[in-house]
Amino acid sequence: MRHYIVLAITLLMAVHVQAAPFGDADDQSYAKSVWNALVRAKLAGDNAISTVPYQGQAPHGAILETLESTVTVHNRQAGPNGDTGIVIVKRNYGGEGVSKDTVANNPEAYLKAVTVMFKRKGYDPDNSDWFWAKFKSNGELHVNPKNMKLAGRVAKGMPQGCIACHTGAQGGDYVFNHDRYK
Fold first, then answer.
1. 110 near 94, Cβ under 8 Å?
2. What is the pLDDT of residues 116-136, one digit of tens each?
3. CB-based contact 114:87 (threshold 8 Å)
4. Alpha helices by DSSP H, 61-167
5. Distance from the CA of 48 to the CA of which of 11, 15, 26, 87 falls in 20 to 30 A?
6. Could you state, in order of their start, the residue ranges of all structural domains in the chain?
7. What does residue 76 show for φ and ψ, rounded to 5 degrees?
């Protein structure tokens, strides 16, 4: 009888403790490597390339900048040559007094997040192989209301979040601006 009770408790614990759909230690480690690749490419960080700010919308921000490039991410999860792929970087600006002019003149004062889509071959074929991350201006990851780090397959299977929203992009590539990355 004791064995059955132990088995039942073990099964209940196994069902209750499931792996997080995103934001686990591997996702956090890979996101840090993505951030480092963005800084090297001058797509994020103190010496980042500036673009012309434009009017945005929720959930990203009132004013945005978007950059696209190719970067190589070096991480223990990547092969010996790293993962090379397309990256889309969106700088999300907000706050009192934010406008295209105020962002153009003082972007650091209004930067709220850097959201990233990195095309990681073989990572998530069901969702066009995008690795998602939402960074603070210093490269730390944002968290959701459940304190989950926003990196990896962000909000897969949930009604809100990167994947759920971007599945609505025309062309099937999860990108709203164009259909180049099918």
1. yes
2. 999 999 999 999 999 999 999
3. no
4. 100-105, 162-166
5. 26
6. 21-166
7. -60, -25
